[in-house]
Write a structure and sequence with these properties.
mainly beta, Immunoglobulin-like, four-stranded antiparallel beta sheet, three-stranded antiparallel beta sheet, about 40% strand
Length: about 110
């Protein structure tokens, strides 16, 4: 396809993707947040990661870390209390020794 475009006078172009601060990692698994949207109280995470300590962060959509803590997963689940975060969209990032999971979290009271 590129050869065909070059034959029509197009040059090869390079595209760079710039991620906001804190979002350069890509999720390499799946995580479920429920309820989501959250009413602002505690919510439960479900992951395919078994019993393991993980780092959990709640970030704004521009990468600012609002919450950071270590949680112990029990059968892939843990309960999280986000505190008094205002209504809005956030990013939840969970890191284990081998996995990074990223998911959208919505708080709506």
């Amino acid at each position: 396809m590129l050869d065909a475009l070059q034959n029509f006078g197009f040059d090869e172009k390079s595209i760079s993707i710039i991620y906001p601060p804190g979002f350069s990692e890509k999720s390499n698994g799946h995580m479920t947040i429920f309820p989501n949207p959250s009413r602002g109280g505690s919510f439960v995470l479900g992951t395919e990661i078994a019993d393991e300590k993980v780092s959990l962060e709640i970030l704004t959509t521009d990468g600012k870390i609002l919450y950071q803590g270590i949680h112990r997963l029990d059968k892939g689940r843990t309960k999280v209390d986000p505190g008094n975060l205002p209504d809005g969209m956030y990013v939840l990032r969970l890191r284990s020794s081998t996995t990074v999971l990223i998911e959208k979290l919505v708080i709506s009271r």
